[in-house]
Amino acid sequence: MTGLRKTFRIKAKDFIHAGEASINVQNLLKSLDLNPQIIRRIAICGYEGEMNVVMHGGDGQLSIEIDADSLAMEIADNGPGIEDIEKAMQAGFSTASDEHREMGFGAGMGLPNMKKNSNDITVESSSGKGTRVRMVFQLS
Ligand SMILES: Nc1ncnc2c1ncn2[C@@H]1O[C@H](COP(=O)(O)OP(=O)(O)O)[C@@H](O)[C@H]1O
Ligand SMILES: [Mg+2]
Question: Is the pLDDT of residue 102 over 80?
Answer without folding.
Answer: yes
